[in-house]
Design brief:
The chain is an alpha/beta fold. Helices cover about 40% and strands about 15% of the residues. α1 packs across α3 and α5 packs across α8. The longest helix has 14 residues. The chain is elongated and about 65 Å long.
Length: about 240
């Protein structure tokens, strides 16, 4: 079993000689295809010759079936979170905010995750520009030093002051920030080779039991429909997000 495109191609070539059972875990067909350069055709041939393809969303499974024979064995196994990281009993939000040095008197909208340019976190910042309530705070947890500097400059350019960057935190502290927030926000573009078909943070957000603001993308909606966690799926215009 592999999820590395090049290894799939190599195993495909060796399969007749080694009598291998070929299992491939696929996360992003377009990106994985492009990454193979001159081996693209051989990669597609290997994909069609697998004994089993594992995907991370039902939407992705449908896209893969457009590439390979419909008779191919394809199953969907969604991502998940580690329940051991979350407290077994409720924790007072004010206590968490004091521990994390967050203001108690603000309504906090939090994003937890990387701030890579391709993820377009600027979209969230731009949407927050239209929030007129000074008691609402935008919190970013995660991101490299360079990414935080880039996003800080963008926020300053827009004149946004109600924003906090916490940077990288230990994984054990991530649930604390999720539980300390009032609303959790997620955004990645729905187009391009780097789009995410099953963001892990969505599962962690659901575990926190807070309202989730996320784009209306089929691979997100199919997961959020499984639970009762409030979800506000929206369009892709920043001002539309502000209204939510």
């Amino acid at each position: 079993m592999t999820r590395i495109p090049l290894l799939l191609t190599i195993f495909h070539v060796l399969k007749p000689f080694l009598k291998l059972k070929l299992i491939y875990e696929m996360h992003n067909p377009f990106y994985e295809y492009l990454s193979q350069g001159k081996l693209k055709d051989l990669f597609i041939s290997g994909l069609k010759n697998t004994d089993l393809i594992i995907t991370i969303s039902n939407h992705l499974e449908k896209e893969i079936r457009k590439i390979v024979d419909s008779k191919n064995n394809i199953i969907t196994l969604h991502d998940a979170f580690d329940p051991a990281l979350f407290p077994s009993s409720p924790i007072d939000k004010d206590i968490l905010r004091e521990e994390l040095n967050l203001p108690r008197d603000k309504w906090i909208v939090a994003y937890v995750g990387q701030l890579h340019a391709w993820k377009r976190p600027e979209f969230i910042v731009e949407a927050f520009r239209h929030v007129e309530d000074e008691d609402t705070l935008l919190l970013f947890v995660g991101g490299s030093e360079n990414d935080i500097k880039r996003l800080t400059r963008y926020a300053e350019h827009l004149g946004i002051k109600q924003i906090i960057f916490k940077g990288q935190v230990p994984s054990i502290d991530v649930p604390k920030y999720l539980l300390a927030a009032d609303c959790l926000v997620h955004y990645t573009p729905s187009t391009g080779p780097m789009k995410s078909y099953s963001p892990l943070k969505i599962f962690e957000y659901m575990a926190a039991g807070k309202p989730i603001l996320a784009p209306r993308q089929p691979w997100i909606e199919e997961v959020l429909k499984m639970v009762r966690t409030p979800c506000y799926s929206t369009k892709t215009r920043p001002r539309t997000w502000q209204k939510r």
